[in-house]
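Q: Two folds, back to back.
A: First:
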Amino acid sequence: MPQDYYPSGPFLSQLPDAGEFDVLREDFLIGFMKSTARAYKADLKDFREWCEAERVEATRPSGIELERFLDSVRERGYAAGTVARRLGAVRGFLRRVALRRVLPLEEG
């Protein structure tokens, strides 16, 4: 894969305490351009931190919980484009999570 794309492979083993969310996030980000992956990774970090603070399961939020997250992003003064990108990142991630529940990742 060209250098401009997000890496794949054994780098997951370098993540400290790589839990389910980390593995699913990295699986989602593989193949994106590095700049897109960097932005989505920050968006998903924000989402995960919000979920932890609100006691929401980050891989199974309800529609109402997603709206609450987006409200929190808006309340922090982010531009409409940033809010839209965060929504896109979270929705794409959750679609990947749903797919992985149907078609699990192969064990090493």
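A: Second:
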Amino acid sequence: MADAKFVERAYDLFSGTVYRVCMMYLKNPADAEDAVADIFLKLLSHPKAFNGDDHLKAWLIVAAKNRCKNVLANWWSKTRVEFDSIPEPAAPAEDLTVLAVEELPEKYREALYLYYYEGYTGAEASKMLAITESAFWSRVKRGRELLHMEMEEECDEGKRVQSGI
């Protein structure tokens, strides 16, 4: 069982990563914050020791992924209606790639996130996703292709708007 100081240190180091993983799945800040709290509470009662910070980070990412999938499977998340009618502000230019990645299908989004945003190797990420390494690289390749097509479409639409077509 982990002590409070260990969990506090883990929170300081990895809460941002866990929050981003939760936002990637849940797309709602309040739900993501709840999931982060649940994950660190789960860490508090985790019986086994970790083999360093990399092992802890990997465990937290997998726990976040599983928690978010449980939240999304819950009937409440499927039937509730958001009352926020205020549109989100336009994202700055540097966030357009992140927004495009968030629109990808889950299996490609996961692979790209773990490889490019978290810096895991193909072997590490494939273990976290419980797939073969070749399947992981196929997902990364296909995700990049989809992302490229999406970015080209948005670029073409922008050109059409500017030219008045």
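Q: And?
A: The chain has a mean pLDDT of 83.
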